[in-house]
Amino acid sequence: MKTTIRDFQSNDATAFLDIVRELQVFELELYDRMMTPDQIGQWYIDELLNQCRVEDGSILVAIRDGQLIGYATIFKKVEQKGELDEVPFTYAFISHIAILPVARGTGAGKLLLSECEKRAIEAGRKWLRIAVLAKNTIAREIYQNIGFHDHHITMEKPLF
């Protein structure tokens, strides 16, 4: 059972949205401002594809035994305008990654991350970023184990 990584195709939409909705269920337990799974539809894919056009990105899918088991999005040209004391720069950004629960531990996520890194390097980027919810300790540990480290931490305090 070999996992392959390829670019998203329009006929992947149904399986892709199923995985996005599965991720929403999980993330709603960690963060109460996520949309509910039933709010995710074709518009989500359209927005990702539009962002891919703007920021030189790709939606990648992981296929195992003919089934879509995961995905990642990589944007290779994210321009950081910089804070008042920071110079502008461009970096690559993995904005989404998810693997179906039944396929976790098979290496599919690492293959997706590796392909994202390869594409970022090919685009000439010096930095690759990924976002993760602070409470998602499992994902944070995985990312740290493959070389990611904390860069900028945003903290939040509920006011009521």
Automatic annotation (TrEMBL):
Entries under Pfam families matching the protein: Acetyltransf_1 (PF00583)
UniProt keyword Transferase, yes or no: yes
Segments forming domain N-acetyltransferase: 3-160
Family matches, as InterPro entries: Acyl_CoA_acyltransferase (IPR016181), Bact_Acetyltransf (IPR050832), GNAT_dom (IPR000182)
The name this protein goes by in its record: GNAT family N-acetyltransferase
Keyword field: Acyltransferase, Transferase
Keyword Glycosyltransferase: no
Organism in which the protein naturally occurs: Serratia montpellierensis
Superkingdom assignment: Bacteria
